[in-house]
Design brief:
The protein contains seven helices and 21 strands. The protein has 318 residues and is an alpha+beta fold. Among the domains are: 55 residues, Structural Genomics Hypothetical 15.5 Kd Protein In mrcA-pckA Intergenic Region, Chain A (Roll), CATH 3.10.290; 84 residues, Pseudouridine synthase I, catalytic domain, N-terminal subdomain (Alpha-Beta Plaits), CATH 3.30.70.580; 77 residues, Alpha-Beta Plaits (2-Layer Sandwich), CATH 3.30.70. The longest helix is centred in the first third of the chain and has 20 residues. The chain is elongated.
Length: 318
Amino acid sequence: MNNGNSRKGGASGRGSNDRKKSSGPSKPLNKIRKPGTKKAAPGGEGEGTAAKKDGFVKGKPTFDRKPADRERRPAAPKKPSNPDELRLNKYISNSGACSRRDADIYIKSGNVKVNGVVVTEMGHRVLLTDKVEFDGSMITPEKKEYLLLNKPKNFTTSGDDDGDMRNVAELVRGASKSKLLPIGRMDKNTTGLLIFTNDTDMIRKFGLPNQKSFKIYQVTLDKNLRYEDLEKIAAGVTLDGHKLFIDEISYIDEQPKTEVGIKLRTQNVKVVRAIFESFKYDVLKVDRVAYAGLTKKNLPRGNYRFLTEQEIINLKNV
Protein backbone atom coordinates (compact mmCIF):
# COMPACT_ATOMS: atom_id res chain seq x y z
CA MET A 1 0.00 0.00 0.00
CA ASN A 2 1.05 3.50 -0.69
CA ASN A 3 0.78 4.50 2.93
CA GLY A 4 2.96 1.62 4.02
CA ASN A 5 5.53 2.20 1.30
CA SER A 6 5.71 5.84 2.24
CA ARG A 7 6.40 5.04 5.85
CA LYS A 8 8.98 2.41 4.94
CA GLY A 9 10.69 4.56 2.43
CA GLY A 10 10.72 7.53 4.78
CA ALA A 11 12.11 5.46 7.53
CA SER A 12 14.84 4.05 5.42
CA GLY A 13 15.63 7.46 4.07
CA ARG A 14 15.96 9.01 7.45
CA GLY A 15 18.14 6.16 8.58
CA SER A 16 20.39 6.57 5.57
CA ASN A 17 20.81 10.26 6.12
CA ASP A 18 21.61 9.76 9.82
CA ARG A 19 24.32 7.29 9.00
CA LYS A 20 25.91 9.69 6.60
CA LYS A 21 25.94 12.54 9.04
CA SER A 22 27.49 10.42 11.75
CA SER A 23 30.25 9.01 9.59
CA GLY A 24 33.52 8.60 11.43
CA PRO A 25 34.22 7.74 15.08
CA SER A 26 31.72 9.18 17.53
CA LYS A 27 32.96 11.55 20.22
CA PRO A 28 32.89 10.31 23.81
CA LEU A 29 30.42 12.05 26.11
CA ASN A 30 33.01 12.66 28.83
CA LYS A 31 36.24 13.77 27.34
CA ILE A 32 39.27 13.53 29.59
CA ARG A 33 40.89 16.91 30.01
CA LYS A 34 44.61 17.25 29.84
CA PRO A 35 46.43 17.78 33.11
CA GLY A 36 46.71 21.42 34.04
CA THR A 37 43.62 22.60 32.23
CA LYS A 38 41.21 24.74 34.20
CA LYS A 39 37.48 24.63 34.37
CA ALA A 40 35.47 27.59 35.59
CA ALA A 41 33.62 26.76 38.74
CA PRO A 42 31.21 28.73 40.83
CA GLY A 43 33.48 28.31 43.81
CA GLY A 44 36.13 30.72 42.54
CA GLU A 45 39.28 30.90 40.43
CA GLY A 46 41.24 27.72 40.15
CA GLU A 47 38.68 25.77 42.10
CA GLY A 48 38.19 23.23 39.40
CA THR A 49 41.88 22.51 38.76
CA ALA A 50 42.16 18.87 37.79
CA ALA A 51 44.88 16.38 38.58
CA LYS A 52 45.21 13.12 36.66
CA LYS A 53 45.94 10.04 38.73
CA ASP A 54 45.78 6.47 37.47
CA GLY A 55 43.68 7.51 34.49
CA PHE A 56 41.06 9.31 36.61
CA VAL A 57 40.46 12.96 37.00
CA LYS A 58 40.12 14.27 40.55
CA GLY A 59 38.96 17.79 41.23
CA LYS A 60 40.55 19.89 43.92
CA PRO A 61 38.27 20.06 47.00
CA THR A 62 36.68 23.40 47.76
CA PHE A 63 37.96 23.22 51.35
CA ASP A 64 41.11 21.94 52.98
CA ARG A 65 40.58 18.70 54.81
CA LYS A 66 42.68 18.23 57.92
CA PRO A 67 44.53 14.94 58.01
CA ALA A 68 43.07 12.55 60.53
CA ASP A 69 46.44 11.98 62.08
CA ARG A 70 47.21 15.66 62.43
CA GLU A 71 47.99 16.58 65.99
CA ARG A 72 45.57 19.07 67.54
CA ARG A 73 46.92 22.06 69.33
CA PRO A 74 46.79 21.62 73.09
CA ALA A 75 44.17 23.77 74.82
CA ALA A 76 45.50 26.72 76.72
CA PRO A 77 45.68 25.91 80.43
CA LYS A 78 42.88 27.49 82.46
CA LYS A 79 43.85 30.14 84.91
CA PRO A 80 43.45 28.69 88.41
CA SER A 81 40.52 30.31 90.20
CA ASN A 82 41.11 32.12 93.43
CA PRO A 83 38.83 30.70 96.16
CA ASP A 84 38.89 34.11 97.86
CA GLU A 85 37.68 35.89 94.72
CA LEU A 86 34.32 35.82 92.95
CA ARG A 87 32.16 37.80 90.57
CA LEU A 88 30.47 40.84 92.01
CA ASN A 89 26.96 39.65 91.08
CA LYS A 90 27.58 36.33 92.81
CA TYR A 91 28.95 38.15 95.86
CA ILE A 92 25.68 40.11 96.03
CA SER A 93 23.56 37.00 95.43
CA ASN A 94 25.37 35.07 98.16
CA SER A 95 24.64 37.88 100.58
CA GLY A 96 20.94 37.22 100.09
CA ALA A 97 20.26 40.76 98.85
CA CYS A 98 18.84 39.61 95.50
CA SER A 99 19.38 37.19 92.61
CA ARG A 100 22.37 37.39 90.25
CA ARG A 101 20.18 38.74 87.45
CA ASP A 102 18.82 41.50 89.66
CA ALA A 103 22.34 42.18 90.95
CA ASP A 104 23.45 42.92 87.36
CA ILE A 105 20.69 45.53 87.11
CA TYR A 106 21.83 47.20 90.33
CA ILE A 107 25.45 47.15 89.13
CA LYS A 108 24.59 48.73 85.76
CA SER A 109 22.57 51.44 87.46
CA GLY A 110 25.53 52.40 89.65
CA ASN A 111 24.03 51.28 92.96
CA VAL A 112 26.98 49.09 93.96
CA LYS A 113 30.27 50.27 95.44
CA VAL A 114 33.44 48.25 96.01
CA ASN A 115 35.81 49.76 98.56
CA GLY A 116 33.99 53.08 98.20
CA VAL A 117 34.16 53.18 94.39
CA VAL A 118 31.10 52.75 92.15
CA VAL A 119 31.44 49.69 89.89
CA THR A 120 29.30 49.31 86.75
CA GLU A 121 31.45 46.76 84.92
CA MET A 122 29.80 43.41 84.26
CA GLY A 123 31.90 40.46 85.40
CA HIS A 124 33.89 42.55 87.85
CA ARG A 125 35.60 40.31 90.40
CA VAL A 126 36.01 41.11 94.06
CA LEU A 127 37.84 39.61 97.00
CA LEU A 128 36.03 38.32 100.05
CA THR A 129 37.93 40.92 102.04
CA ASP A 130 36.61 43.79 99.91
CA LYS A 131 33.96 46.11 101.31
CA VAL A 132 30.85 46.00 99.12
CA GLU A 133 27.94 48.42 99.47
CA PHE A 134 24.67 47.37 97.90
CA ASP A 135 22.09 50.12 97.48
CA GLY A 136 23.62 52.02 100.37
CA SER A 137 24.03 49.08 102.80
CA MET A 138 27.16 47.09 103.56
CA ILE A 139 26.78 43.39 102.69
CA THR A 140 28.74 40.18 103.21
CA PRO A 141 29.04 37.35 100.67
CA GLU A 142 27.69 34.74 103.05
CA LYS A 143 24.29 33.51 101.96
CA LYS A 144 21.60 34.08 104.58
CA GLU A 145 20.08 30.88 105.92
CA TYR A 146 17.10 30.32 108.18
CA LEU A 147 16.39 27.12 110.05
CA LEU A 148 13.48 26.10 112.29
CA LEU A 149 14.10 23.66 115.16
CA ASN A 150 11.56 21.88 117.38
CA LYS A 151 13.69 21.92 120.51
CA PRO A 152 13.44 19.02 122.99
CA LYS A 153 14.10 19.23 126.73
CA ASN A 154 17.54 19.30 128.34
CA PHE A 155 19.04 21.59 125.70
CA THR A 156 19.75 25.26 126.30
CA THR A 157 20.77 28.27 124.24
CA SER A 158 23.38 29.29 126.81
CA GLY A 159 27.04 28.39 126.50
CA ASP A 160 26.97 26.24 129.62
CA ASP A 161 27.56 22.52 129.28
CA ASP A 162 26.90 21.02 132.67
CA GLY A 163 25.65 17.47 133.18
CA ASP A 164 22.24 17.02 131.58
CA MET A 165 22.27 20.53 130.03
CA ARG A 166 23.59 20.58 126.46
CA ASN A 167 23.70 23.33 123.86
CA VAL A 168 21.09 23.48 121.11
CA ALA A 169 23.92 23.91 118.59
CA GLU A 170 24.38 20.13 118.77
CA LEU A 171 20.94 19.64 117.23
CA VAL A 172 21.71 21.66 114.09
CA ARG A 173 25.36 20.73 113.71
CA GLY A 174 26.14 19.85 110.11
CA ALA A 175 23.03 21.58 108.76
CA SER A 176 25.09 24.40 107.27
CA LYS A 177 28.68 25.50 106.77
CA SER A 178 27.69 28.90 108.11
CA LYS A 179 27.59 29.66 111.81
CA LEU A 180 23.89 29.67 112.67
CA LEU A 181 22.80 31.33 115.90
CA PRO A 182 19.46 30.98 117.71
CA ILE A 183 17.07 33.92 117.86
CA GLY A 184 16.31 34.53 121.50
CA ARG A 185 16.99 32.39 124.57
CA MET A 186 15.45 29.14 125.68
CA ASP A 187 16.18 27.22 128.88
CA LYS A 188 16.53 23.47 129.18
CA ASN A 189 12.94 22.89 130.37
CA THR A 190 11.32 24.86 127.55
CA THR A 191 10.52 23.06 124.33
CA GLY A 192 9.23 24.08 120.93
CA LEU A 193 10.09 26.33 118.05
CA LEU A 194 13.45 28.04 117.83
CA ILE A 195 14.80 29.85 114.77
CA PHE A 196 18.49 29.69 113.79
CA THR A 197 20.10 32.05 111.29
CA ASN A 198 23.29 33.82 110.26
CA ASP A 199 21.28 36.94 109.47
CA THR A 200 22.40 39.35 112.18
CA ASP A 201 19.76 41.89 111.17
CA MET A 202 17.05 39.28 111.75
CA ILE A 203 18.51 38.34 115.14
CA ARG A 204 18.61 42.00 116.14
CA LYS A 205 15.08 42.63 114.88
CA PHE A 206 13.46 39.80 116.85
CA GLY A 207 15.47 40.69 119.93
CA LEU A 208 13.85 44.11 120.25
CA PRO A 209 11.45 44.48 123.19
CA ASN A 210 8.75 46.00 120.97
CA GLN A 211 8.84 43.15 118.47
CA LYS A 212 5.40 42.73 116.88
CA SER A 213 5.42 39.06 115.92
CA PHE A 214 3.09 36.72 117.80
CA LYS A 215 4.20 33.64 119.72
CA ILE A 216 1.88 30.98 121.11
CA TYR A 217 2.87 28.91 124.15
CA GLN A 218 1.23 25.85 125.61
CA VAL A 219 1.75 25.99 129.38
CA THR A 220 1.36 23.07 131.78
CA LEU A 221 0.55 24.08 135.37
CA ASP A 222 0.73 22.15 138.63
CA LYS A 223 -3.02 22.67 139.19
CA ASN A 224 -6.10 23.77 137.28
CA LEU A 225 -6.14 27.40 136.25
CA ARG A 226 -9.14 29.05 137.82
CA TYR A 227 -11.42 30.90 135.43
CA GLU A 228 -11.17 34.06 137.53
CA ASP A 229 -7.39 34.02 137.15
CA LEU A 230 -7.69 33.36 133.43
CA GLU A 231 -9.82 36.50 133.07
CA LYS A 232 -7.38 38.58 135.12
CA ILE A 233 -4.46 37.42 132.98
CA ALA A 234 -6.43 38.21 129.82
CA ALA A 235 -6.92 41.78 131.09
CA GLY A 236 -3.14 42.26 131.37
CA VAL A 237 -0.45 41.58 133.94
CA THR A 238 1.96 43.96 135.67
CA LEU A 239 5.45 42.55 136.11
CA ASP A 240 8.23 44.53 137.75
CA GLY A 241 6.23 47.71 137.29
CA HIS A 242 5.64 47.12 133.57
CA LYS A 243 2.24 46.39 132.09
CA LEU A 244 2.24 43.29 129.88
CA PHE A 245 -0.61 42.93 127.43
CA ILE A 246 -1.88 39.44 126.67
CA ASP A 247 -3.27 39.01 123.16
CA GLU A 248 -5.13 35.79 123.96
CA ILE A 249 -5.38 33.12 126.64
CA SER A 250 -7.61 30.04 126.80
CA TYR A 251 -7.86 26.47 128.00
CA ILE A 252 -6.69 23.76 125.58
CA ASP A 253 -9.61 21.89 124.00
CA GLU A 254 -10.19 18.37 125.32
CA GLN A 255 -7.38 18.81 127.85
CA PRO A 256 -7.47 19.27 131.63
CA LYS A 257 -7.54 22.86 132.85
CA THR A 258 -3.90 22.55 133.77
CA GLU A 259 -3.17 22.96 130.04
CA VAL A 260 -3.39 26.59 128.93
CA GLY A 261 -2.64 28.32 125.64
CA ILE A 262 -1.35 31.88 125.75
CA LYS A 263 -0.59 34.20 122.83
CA LEU A 264 1.67 37.20 123.26
CA ARG A 265 4.44 39.07 121.50
CA THR A 266 7.36 38.44 123.84
CA GLN A 267 9.73 35.59 123.10
CA ASN A 268 11.20 35.71 126.59
CA VAL A 269 10.10 32.42 128.13
CA LYS A 270 10.89 33.75 131.61
CA VAL A 271 8.06 36.25 131.17
CA VAL A 272 5.64 33.43 130.34
CA ARG A 273 6.57 31.63 133.53
CA ALA A 274 6.42 34.84 135.57
CA ILE A 275 2.82 35.50 134.45
CA PHE A 276 1.48 32.32 136.05
CA GLU A 277 3.84 32.37 139.01
CA SER A 278 2.46 35.80 139.92
CA PHE A 279 -0.90 34.05 140.43
CA LYS A 280 0.67 31.33 142.63
CA TYR A 281 0.90 28.59 139.99
CA ASP A 282 3.96 26.45 139.42
CA VAL A 283 4.83 26.08 135.73
CA LEU A 284 5.79 22.50 134.91
CA LYS A 285 6.27 22.90 131.20
CA VAL A 286 6.34 25.55 128.47
CA ASP A 287 6.11 24.59 124.79
CA ARG A 288 6.33 27.21 122.05
CA VAL A 289 3.92 25.89 119.41
CA ALA A 290 3.88 28.89 117.05
CA TYR A 291 6.43 31.57 116.20
CA ALA A 292 5.66 34.51 113.87
CA GLY A 293 3.29 32.40 111.80
CA LEU A 294 5.52 29.29 111.84
CA THR A 295 4.14 26.11 113.42
CA LYS A 296 5.37 22.66 114.45
CA LYS A 297 3.36 20.95 111.71
CA ASN A 298 5.27 17.94 110.31
CA LEU A 299 8.26 18.80 112.49
CA PRO A 300 8.86 16.16 115.18
CA ARG A 301 10.60 17.02 118.43
CA GLY A 302 14.37 17.30 117.98
CA ASN A 303 14.12 17.79 114.19
CA TYR A 304 14.73 20.88 112.08
CA ARG A 305 14.02 22.15 108.59
CA PHE A 306 15.03 25.15 106.48
CA LEU A 307 12.44 27.83 105.96
CA THR A 308 10.86 28.26 102.55
CA GLU A 309 11.42 31.39 100.51
CA GLN A 310 7.92 32.61 101.30
CA GLU A 311 8.38 32.00 105.04
CA ILE A 312 11.56 34.07 104.96
CA ILE A 313 9.73 36.91 103.20
CA ASN A 314 6.99 36.75 105.82
CA LEU A 315 9.52 36.98 108.65
CA LYS A 316 11.19 40.00 107.09
CA ASN A 317 7.84 41.72 106.71
CA VAL A 318 6.76 41.21 110.32
